[in-house]
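Continuing the batch. This is chain 6 of the set; chains 1 through 5 are on the previous pages. Same settings as before, nothing changed between runs. Recording input and output for traceability.
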Amino acid sequence: MSEPLPLEGLRVLDISTFIAAPAAAVALADYGADVIKIEAPGEGDPHRHNYKRAGTYPKSDHNFPLQLDGRLKRSLALDLKRPEVRPILEDLVRRADIMIVNFPPPARERLRLRWEDVEPLNPRLVYCSLTGYGETGPDRDRPGFDITAYFGRSGILDSARYEGGPPGISLPAQGDRATAMTLVAAILLGLRRRDQTGRGGWVGTSLYANGAWANGTTLAGAAIGGKLVTREPPDRPKNALANLYRTRDERWLQLLIVRDDRMWSTFCAAIGRPELESDPRFTDREERKRRAFELYAEIAPIFASRTYAEWESVLSKTGIPFGVIGRTIDVVDDEQARHAGIFADTTNPEVPRTINNPIRLGFAKPRISGPPAAVGENNDEILRELGHSDAEIAALRKAGVLG
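Output for chain 6:
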């Protein structure tokens, strides 16, 4: 008999919207947790409609974001502002192992969804909250999205721009997905504490903290007064051996020879310019950096003379660190992506393939997902599990508190 999935038997209340927190709940569901998505009646989580509304998303008639961030969840549509549903919510909290929320602190206070509100109901609960900027401080109530809090406030976009140019804009939900895995880690730490003490507790993070962690190398240097360096465009590199080069077929090759004291000779031979090894301008490591523009002028036309595939064939035999600036569309059919388990098949004919969470286990594989639940699709099923009769469920529906 095969062993159960590692999170089988755990019940999760996902009371969150948009992406980072719901994505964390997906990762838990992938590995066996029973996730109940509590969302507003009617439209439900606004993220359900982003595939039609968000201008930066790929265009499709099929709801691929919901398959990605809503799979393997049961949907219970409750109007949490109505006092009639409070007993239902409290019953769910008593039976839950994990509760995930991402409403701003004032909304949590109004809805009585704070840790101090639910701890008396279930001291074993692992309560996980996500904020934009943190649980305290002058900006704790400010709405946060990954563009503003993770990428913007943390300095990532400023640090990554080329000198003199405007900051770029991140792609959809990149910071959200990284933050989701921090939430998963925090939840697992909470469960470990419960194993040790029998008590749950509050765990959480913020988009801002995760952006700062991602920007940690630069930010840690700044924190001790280190001089920040500017980023130069590829045609004005600080180091020609750690730079981007355009190939003949309009691809970008990333060269990253961090140990050029060892690989300079190998590199010169690989690009067909062995005489550069003894060129007095470039024989010394520091001179190669000081004369980076001159070295770039020698190298750039060489890389431009061949396709990326040709350079890959040449460089892959040398041990020289390099890579391609991959195009998103290329990842779809990348054989290495298959080996890395990046894509997951589904049983949803409209979205037959989606993205796996990045956790890999030697003893378990994520569940295969079907079509995500519609808003309130599992109302009756979940309420019956809580002991409500069909008549009581009908009365709740008539009162307008169920979706």
